[in-house]
């Protein structure tokens, strides 16, 4: 039992299997088709395999000990239970709770596209399930509707929690907060425009100092205008280049950064922020 607890402790998807088991193979293929990379434990290749198999039977895997599927540390069951959840649309819901951000979408839905683009622009890589492209999409859509999703897509889960009315709730987060969130994701963040010579100068300076800043080119990303207005509200005039070090806005970025550099104060500031180490 302790061996099982240790193996499933990572809280992801774990499948106890046997390398020669055809039903195990089918379950593994199902999860791979759903975009999941489960942790596979082949008990016939493990010296403790017999003890693990006995423990699985004690846990309730009575018909056959394998495949035994755990999600988030909890036993889901074997082939029948997993397939039943899948056909009913509930399996993906359980998987949704294991990812930081999950979006149920349709490839033809413009609002779904908007929501996905927003998360990508924020540097988030959500798990995306296109209901019009997966085999049990209709069942999942009905399950989403039962949860209160109207319309059914886009449906957004953050930390396993459903965000009701995601189009309005997610999109209308104050843009200033989105700027500050982006600014806090790396030691140095620069909001720039690809055509701005001063932005180019500032970026070159940081590169020469051995810094690898996060760069957001406002003229190349979908919500660049909104971010620019938010920067202006934060006091950036001109709006670019806008430099954040350690999550803090450097006001009058071009002149201030250059002054800090010439006075010898920039490198200590970068070291304190963790942007450089030497």
What does the secondary structure layout of this molecule look like, with pairings?
Elements: H1 2-7, E1 13-17, H2 22-33, E2 39-42, H3 49-59, E3 68-71, E4 74-77, H4 79-88, H5 90-96, E5 101-105, H6 110-121, E6 127-130, H7 137-146, E7 155-158, E8 161-163, H8 166-171, H9 175-183, E9 188-192, H10 197-208, E10 214-217, H11 224-233, E11 242-245, E12 248-250, H12 253-263, H13 266-273
Parallel strand pairs: 1-2, 5-6, 9-10
Antiparallel strand pairs: 1-3, 3-4, 5-7, 7-8, 9-11, 11-12
Organism: Papaver somniferum (Opium poppy)
Domain Glutaredoxin: 13-76, 101-163, 188-250
Family: Belongs to the glutaredoxin family. CC-type subfamily.
Order of helices and strands: HEHEHEEHHEHEHEEHHEHEHEEHH
Average pLDDT score: 86
CATH-assigned fold name of the largest domain: Glutaredoxin
The CATH H-level superfamily of the largest domain is: Glutaredoxin
User: How helix-rich are the residues, as a percent range?
Assistant: 40-55%
- CATH-derived architecture of the largest domain: 3-Layer(aba) Sandwich
How many domains? Answer: 3
Gyration radius, to the nearest Å? 25 Å
Low-confidence region ranges: none
Number of helices: 13
**What is the level 1 CATH name of the largest domain?**
Alpha Beta
Quick take:
This protein has 278 residues and is α/β, with parallel strands linked by helices.
Can you put this structure into words, describing what you see?
- The chain is α/β, with parallel strands linked by helices.
- It folds into three domains: 93 residues, Glutaredoxin (3-Layer(aba) Sandwich); 65 residues, Glutaredoxin; 99 residues, 3-Layer(aba) Sandwich (Glutaredoxin), CATH 3.40.30.10.
- The strands form three sheets. It has a four-stranded mixed beta sheet with strand order 2-1-3-4, sandwiched between helices.
- α9 crosses α11.
- The longest helix has 12 residues.
- The protein is elongated, with a radius of gyration of 25 Å.
- The model has no long low-confidence stretch (mean pLDDT 86).
């Amino acid at each position: 039992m302790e061996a099982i607890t240790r193996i499933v402790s990572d809280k992801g998807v774990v499948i106890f299997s046997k390398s020669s088991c055809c039903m195990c193979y089918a379950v593994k293929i199902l999860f791979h088709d759903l975009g999941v990379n489960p942790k596979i434990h082949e008990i016939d290749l493990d010296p403790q395999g017999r003890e693990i198999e006995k423990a699985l039977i004690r846990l309730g895997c009575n018909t056959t000990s394998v495949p035994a599927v755990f999600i988030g540390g909890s036993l889901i069951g074997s082939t029948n239970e997993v397939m039943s959840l899948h056909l009913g649309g509930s399996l993906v819901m359980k998987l949704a709770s294991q990812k930081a951000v999950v979006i149920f979408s349709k490839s033809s839905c413009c609002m779904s596209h908007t929501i996905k683009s927003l998360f990508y622009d924020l540097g988030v890589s959500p798990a995306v399930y296109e209901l019009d492209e997966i085999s049990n999409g209709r069942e999942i859509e009905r399950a989403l509707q039962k949860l209160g999703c109207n319309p059914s897509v886009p449906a957004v889960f953050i930390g396993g929690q459903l965000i009701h009315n995601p189009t309005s709730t997610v999109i209308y987060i104050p843009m200033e907060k989105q700027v500050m969130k982006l600014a806090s994701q790396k030691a140095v963040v620069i909001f720039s425009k690809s055509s701005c010579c001063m932005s180019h100068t500032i970026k070159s300076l940081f590169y020469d100092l051995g810094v690898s800043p996060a760069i957001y080119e406002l003229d190349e990303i979908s919500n660049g205008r909104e971010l620019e207005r938010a920067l202006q509200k934060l006091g950036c005039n001109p709006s670019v280049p806008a430099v954040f070090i350690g999550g803090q806005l450097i006001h009058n970025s071009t002149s201030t950064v250059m002054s800090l550099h010439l006075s010898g104060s920039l490198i200590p500031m970068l070291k304190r922020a963790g942007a450089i180490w030497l």
